[in-house]
Write a structure and sequence with these properties.
mainly alpha; globular
Length: about 160
């Protein structure tokens, strides 16, 4: 009986993962990373506040949850832009040889994940766990993403 439960559980998890991947495609990994970093950041933030003697206020907790929800709204907006661009290219039969294929939404996810990772490192420092090499690396990644976006806006990137 226990073996059947394990098999059914594995099949259920595999089905959920396959369905998630079928729905979100290229966004699967960035969304899962965003979810994992959201949960970790929230948890480490609460722990750091408790250690510092600030406690965890419900108002601050709700504000943090709203911020996390807003991150998914930003990804949704990026997905809408991707969808609009792709629809416009197809329906207007524009002579363009590209599709955004959810690249804008994925880029938003990547940027948010890097920001969450920076916040987690800051929370770890507040907890007394030093990782001095992580924050500069993550800040460099964040600045490179921002530079690339700015260069793209100005048209500085080579095609």
């Amino acid at each position: 009986m226990n073996n059947n439960i394990i098999i059914i559980t594995k099949a259920g998890i595999a089905t959920l993962c396959a369905g998630f991947n079928a729905i979100f495609g290229i966004l699967t990994v960035p969304l899962l990373l965003l979810l994992a970093t959201n949960i970790t950041d929230y948890g480490t933030g609460i722990m750091a506040s408790k250690i510092e003697g600030k406690g965890a206020s419900s108002a601050l907790g709700i504000k943090g949850i709203f911020k996390k929800v807003a991150m998914y709204i930003a990804v949704l907006v990026g997905w809408m832009v991707d969808t609009l661009v792709n629809y416009g290219i197809e329906s207007l039969k524009l002579p363009l040889d590209f599709s955004t294929a959810n690249i804008i939404a994925a880029g938003i996810c990547y940027w948010l994940v890097v920001n969450e990772l920076i916040s987690i490192v800051e929370n770890l420092n507040r907890l007394g766990v030093e990782a001095p090499f992580l924050k500069p690396i993550l800040s460099l990644v964040k600045s490179k993403v921002e530079e690339t976006v700015s260069a793209n806006k100005r048209g500085d990137l080579d095609e």
